Amino acid sequence: MASEENESKMDVDGVEKNNIADDNFSDDEAPSTVDDKKVVIGGNGQMDDTALLKIGVRPTPKPVPKEKRITTPYMTKYEKARILGTRALQIAMNAPVLVDIEGETDPLQIARKELAQKKIPLIVRRYLPDNSYEDWSVEELIID
């Protein structure tokens, strides 16, 4: 009976579970976990930014006001591709069309017409290295 208590137990999925009470840790030495990752905190117990990044916790990005934007007002080819693809998918899923379609049935062609007329109701979010972001509406961006 005692040997059965010392053996590992299996959970419903057949994965081995160890009971922390079976380990030889005192309460103050028990390993702490964050998202099933073992975390060892040393020093004064305060976690700095590098310690937070190591365990996967990141500070919340902050928005940049419109008057202090630093990125280009030109839409990149990658933003254009994503905007057209997203809007074409919305149109294919019966979202309201915001331009005169003139008999057009292809969602991508309709999305291109909406982009040319700057009628697409989407926002482009550009993340910056200083943990901030800029939001640009499609109407504000210059399209080549």
Automatic annotation (TrEMBL):
Basic and acidic residues compositional bias, start-end: 1-20
Main location: nucleus
Localization (cell): Nucleus
PROSITE patterns per UniProt: RNA_POL_K_14KD (PS01111)
Pfam family, one: RNA_pol_Rpb6
InterPro entries: DNA-dir_RNA_polK_14-18kDa_CS, Pol_omega/Rpo6/RPB6, RPB6, RPB6/omega-like_sf, Rpo6/Rpb6
GO terms, molecular function: DNA binding; DNA-directed RNA polymerase activity
GO biological-process terms attached to the record: transcription by RNA polymerase II; transcription elongation by RNA polymerase I; tRNA transcription by RNA polymerase III
Entry keyword Membrane: no
Keywords: DNA-directed RNA polymerase, Nucleus, Phosphoprotein, Transcription
Domain of life assignment: Eukaryota
One GO CC annotation: RNA polymerase II, core complex
Positions of region (Disordered): 1-42
SUPFAM superfamilies the UniProt entry points to: RPB6/omega subunit-like
Family according to the record: Belongs to the archaeal Rpo6/eukaryotic RPB6 RNA polymerase subunit family.
PANTHER family: DNA-DIRECTED RNA POLYMERASE SUBUNIT K (PTHR47227), DNA-DIRECTED RNA POLYMERASES I, II, AND III SUBUNIT RPABC2 (PTHR47227:SF5)
NCBIfam families the record matches: PRK01099.1-3
Protein name as catalogued: DNA-directed RNA polymerases I, II, and III subunit RPABC2
